[in-house]
Amino acid sequence: MNKRQRPARKRKGATAAVVVCFVAAIAIVGTYTFRDYRKTQQEQQLAQAEETNETKEEKTEEPTETANNDLVINTTENDDKQNTDENSGDTADGAAANENQNTQATAGSGTSVHFTEDSQLLWPVNGNILMNYSMDKTVYFSTLDQYKYNPALVISGAEGDQVISAAPGIIKSIDVSAETGTTVNVDIGNGYELFYGQLKEVPVKVGDYVEAKSVLGYISQPTKYYSVEGSNVYFEMRKDGQPVNPMEYLAE
């Protein structure tokens, strides 16, 4: 009976040893596996921490870049504003310079160009009045053989006679028309203008300042509108663009 039990005990002991070895092997493998797992977890956590730090650094740097960009934009806007202010100043200075030049030109070229209601005109030529100023009723035009309004004085004269400026002024225009021939327009100030028609050999030009008695030209042959009346000076006066009677201002 005892002899039979000994092999069984030996087998049980061997089995227990195998189980112990297997458990030990599993424990050893588990230990290494757990260490590898912890190492892997630590590496992953370290990588995540580094990524988090990089992300925070990027987020921290972005406002700085934005601030820098804002500074650049603000600097550009300030530069543009400064340039605009400088240009505006230059424009204002240029306008002031032009205004001063214009004022100087007016003052230098026509100090006496201030015709008023109390001022007087010189006769532009020595001659008789062929046709009077008439804007309230019509007058007879011999050449045209009709009655019409006459906004000027038609003064007789010989061809080649001098025609002088009746008042100081600035030559505003020199035109040629079928009715009055070569006609010189002189601005004498305060809205008053004088027109001298039927001229030739005009020695002045637009923009010139002329004193009273300055020669504006010479009497030419009459146009076809005044062929019957003969050589003459067409002498018209306007105030603010409206005809007025020169006789009210001509010296006796």
TrEMBL record:
M23ase beta-sheet core domain mapped to chain residues: 152-246
Ranges where the record places region Disordered: 45-96
Highest taxon above the source species: Bacteria
Record keywords, A-Z: Membrane, Signal, Transmembrane, Transmembrane helix
Molecular function via GO: metalloendopeptidase activity
Bias kind Basic and acidic residues: ranges: 53-62
Biased composition (Polar residues): 67-76
Nucleotide-binding is among the record's keywords: no
TM regions (residue ranges): 12-34
One Pfam family this sequence matches: Peptidase_M23
Record's protein name: Peptidase, M23 family
Provenance organism: [Clostridium] hylemonae DSM 15053
